[in-house]
Q: What sequence folds into this?
């Protein structure tokens, strides 16, 4: 009886394995027969691309990082990031007891110098009248004149010292140099402010420009006043602009020449720090074959870029590419695809290597 149970158990396990294997084979067969409809496009050569492109960033034309020349504790920061401020509005207050003491000394010196000057002026006028009446000697008048001039000079020196102290107070009460928006605060109330340390950043959001780098091989083709198109990557929108500055030296920029582009007034919500692509219309010398594909067809994995192609067996094949510059919604393929090859631009399902595809 026990032997019969063992026989039944072995038979049951064998049957279970057979059913499971058949199920797996069936699933695999179903997976192998999955066909994804796709649309393809052919690579074409572009022999007359009219653009030189360069990447850059947007920044405000008027911007400032405000700092101080004095050392002291921050006592007040009445503004926050995003606040709109007017020219002359207080942004940061710094406590400096040494400067306050110096101001008191200067004010006392002015009072003393003023009193001495007033007394010297009276003596000078009195002796001038006595000399006119021959009641005082020339020596006495000369002494009074000298005392008067010295008192006047001491008073003027005291006033100039006060101007110096007042100028230093401008560095403990930081005020807005123009109308704008606060874009950053780098210190908190109670922190110690040091000379040259950035405290507040602000900018005027009414006008923007793009800072970009152009290689030496193309810088000679860019002229002041050239109209350009600026593509804002994050919003997929374009803004017009004009070249406002072209650097004549690449000594400190590693062979790249700085080019500034002033943006035209626009309703596009432009912000500082946005990454853009600038399209410079240039006249090509000769013709250069270029392979361009839509950015929407690209597959990215970290730093790798690729595109799905169709193999001879009608399966999807991911091919990694080396890409170059971007021209609007197209990207230049430097290697990995040849002219007139086909690639998948859209699919009615998830693509992966080896999946069967049918061309619509």
A:
């Amino acid at each position: 009886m026990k032997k019969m149970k063992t026989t039944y158990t072995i038979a049951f396990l064998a049957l279970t394995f057979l059913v499971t294997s058949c199920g797996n084979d069936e699933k695999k067969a179903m997976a192998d027969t999955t066909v994804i409809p796709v649309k393809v496009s052919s690579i074409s050569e572009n022999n007359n691309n009219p653009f030189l492109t360069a990447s850059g960033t947007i920044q405000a034309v008027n911007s400032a990082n405000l700092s101080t020349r004095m050392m002291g504790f921050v006592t007040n920061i009445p503004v926050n990031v995003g606040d709109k401020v007017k020219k002359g509005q207080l942004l940061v207050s710094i406590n400096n007891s040494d400067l306050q003491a110096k101001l008191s000394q200067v004010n006392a010196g002015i009072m003393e110098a003023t009193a001495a000057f007033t007394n010297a002026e009276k003596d000078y006028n009195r002796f001038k009248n006595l000399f006119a009446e021959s009641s005082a000697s020339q020596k006495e008048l000369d002494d009074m004149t000298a005392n008067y001039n010295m008192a006047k000079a001491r008073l003027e020196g005291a006033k100039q010292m006060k101007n110096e102290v007042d100028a230093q107070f401008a560095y403990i009460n930081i005020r807005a140099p123009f109308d704008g928006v606060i874009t950053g605060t780098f210190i908190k109330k109670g922190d110690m402010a040091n000379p040259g340390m950035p405290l507040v950043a602000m900018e005027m959001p009414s006008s923007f420009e793009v800072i970009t780098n152009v290689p030496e091989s193309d810088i000679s083709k860019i002229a002041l006043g050239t109209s350009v198109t600026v593509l804002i990557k994050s919003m997929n929108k374009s803004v017009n602009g004009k070249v406002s500055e072209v650097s004549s030296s690449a000594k400190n920029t590693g062979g790249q020449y700085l080019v500034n582009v002033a943006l035209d007034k626009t309703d596009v919500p432009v912000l500082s720090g946005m990454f853009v692509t600038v399209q410079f219309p240039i006249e090509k010398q000769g013709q250069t074959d270029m392979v361009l594909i839509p950015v929407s067809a690209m597959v990215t994995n970290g730093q790798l870029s690729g595109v799905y192609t169709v193999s001879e067996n009608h399966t999807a094949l991911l091919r990694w590419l080396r890409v170059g510059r971007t021209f609007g919604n197209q990207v230049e393929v430097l290697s990995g695809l040849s002219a007139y090859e086909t690639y998948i631009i859209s699919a009615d399902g998830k693509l992966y290597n080896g999946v069967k595809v049918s061309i619509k």
Summary: The CA atoms of residues 101 and 356 lie 85 Å apart. The longest strand covers residues 316-327.
